[in-house]
Write a structure and sequence with these properties.
Elements: H1 2-14, E1 21-28, H2 31-43, E2 50-52, E3 57-63, H3 69-72, E4 77-82, E5 85-88, E6 92-94, H4 116-120, E7 136-141, E8 152-157, H5 170-179, E9 194-199, E10 206-208, H6 209-221, E11 226-229, E12 231-232, H7 238-249, E13 253-257, E14 277-283, E15 299-304, E16 308-311, E17 317-321, H8 323-340, H9 346-355, H10 364-367, H11 374-379
Parallel strand pairs: 7-9, 7-11, 8-9, 11-13, 13-14, 14-15
Antiparallel strand pairs: 1-3, 1-4, 2-3, 5-10, 5-12, 6-17, 16-17
Length: 402
């Protein structure tokens, strides 16, 4: 490997002045191979932009003309791929700032604070049993908050290790749909879920696959119950697919937006199309598939995604449209079911949500099984899965991991 990396280093030095560069991900077969590669890169004067030992992943910036063939063939290297961009699935933003008085009794549900979209998925009837307090939900996005209607339990910034506060607005809006507390103006689907921010998209709503993969790995390490991913990649990424597979093996429920390319797209975006991920399409207030919502194989469910009011950084509220807005409805719903049944597997929770869906016109390639319906899914959870539900205690999740 030493001589191979020296040759690559010479190409990097020769192309330093090139304006055409790209990030590339090197994935090693073992931790020992990873350590050796890091050592050789350092000796050759190559500084990676990202290293994640748990995933045996190294991301480097290089001129587009660099020949990686020799390194790809090295017995310690699993594969090398382009570190591609992923983008948030938001279509439009409308103003809608405002505030509401704090309730004297925060335990009481104020019907006026339940948005139409949260009522449409039948989340509020489940709140009599749980508001999600036993579950941990991670939003992999542009960050979260601050907003008085959101309580963030923690998080990480996989871009540069800095703050996980939101510098775009997309992540805060998504988080509000899943987890707004109702303290000020609106409730989300799971008002007392333990909410975590995984900032992997920048202020433009764009990120690299390596940042996403590191974020998913953080979720696995920190034992998240649900991950929401309101972004997409039209191409293919083995790194992203394998990160999702690792999370699936650890029993995490994953929801993802399918994309905003409408009916003419060839397929829905990744990671929504990957096994173990609930791909969520967008519907209108009239219970029809949104014109912008991507079509294709792999859509599991549909949820409201047009003109959705939710939280914004700094304490305000805005309306946005996109399949980005649909996915967190399912994530919040999954968190409620996880809180009700800590011992239920991710596959069981996904099956209950799909089986309880309300049929809609458009077909499976447009709306999957139909409109997300959380209350019937919760009712369908068998007694053998039932655990101690928490309305807001933040009780420790004691379910066993596969």
């Amino acid at each position: 490997m030493k001589e191979t990396i020296r040759k690559i280093a010479r190409q990097l030095k020769a192309g330093r002045k090139s304006n055409r560069t790209a990030r590339n991900i090197i994935v090693l077969k073992s931790k020992q191979g990873y350590d050796d590669c890091i050592k050789q890169l350092k000796a050759a004067g190559i500084r990676p932009v990202k290293t994640v030992r748990r995933c045996r992943m190294i991301s480097c910036v290089a001129p587009r003309g660099v020949d990686w063939t020799a390194l790809k063939r090295h017995p310690s290297v699993a594969y090398i791929e382009r570190d591609r961009h992923v983008k948030a699935h938001v279509r439009s933003v409308r103003s809608g700032r405002g505030r509401a008085a704090r309730l004297k009794d925060e335990c009481r549900i104020d019907p006026a604070k339940i948005p139409w979209n949260i009522a449409r998925i039948e989340a509020p009837p489940v709140w009599k049993r749980t508001k999600g307090g036993c579950a941990k939900l991670a939003v992999v996005d542009t960050g979260i908050g601050p907003n008085a209607d959101l309580t963030v339990a923690g998080g990480v910034n996989t871009i540069d290790g800095g703050s996980f506060k939101d510098d775009n607005g997309h992540g805060t809006h998504v988080a509000g749909i899943a987890a707004a507390t109702g303290r000020r103006r609106i409730y989300g689907a799971a008002p007392k879920v333990r909410l975590f921010a995984v900032k992997a998209l920048d202020r433009f709503g764009v990120g690299f696959v390596s940042d996403i993969a590191e974020g998913i790995d953080w979720c696995v390490k920190n034992r998240m119950d649900v991950i929401n991913m309101s972004f997409g990649l039209s191409g293919e990424s083995r790194v992203l697919r394998e990160a999702v597979a690792r999370a699936r093996r650890k029993g995490i429920v994953m929801t993802a937006s399918v994309g905003n390319d409408g009916p003419r797209n060839a397929r829905i975006d990744a990671p929504a199309r990957y096994p173990g991920v609930l791909g969520i399409a967008a519907t209108t207030r009239g219970n029809r598939v949104a014109t912008f919502s991507s079509r294709g194989k792999g859509i599991a469910l549909a949820a409201p995604g047009v003109n959705i009011l939710s939280t914004a950084p700094g304490g305000g509220y805005v309306r946005m449209s996109g399949t980005s807005m649909s996915s967190p409805h399912a994530a919040g719903g999954a968190a409620l079911l996880r809180s009700l049944a800590p011992r239920a597997t991710a596959a069981c929770i996904s099956r209950k949500l799909v089986a309880a869906a309300k049929p809609l016109p458009g077909g499976r390639r447009a709306v999957g099984a139909g409109l997300l319906q959380v209350a019937p899914a919760a009712a369908a959870l068998g007694a053998k899965h039932a655990g101690r539900a928490g309305g807001g205690s933040g009780a420790r999740n004691k379910r066993s991991r596969p």
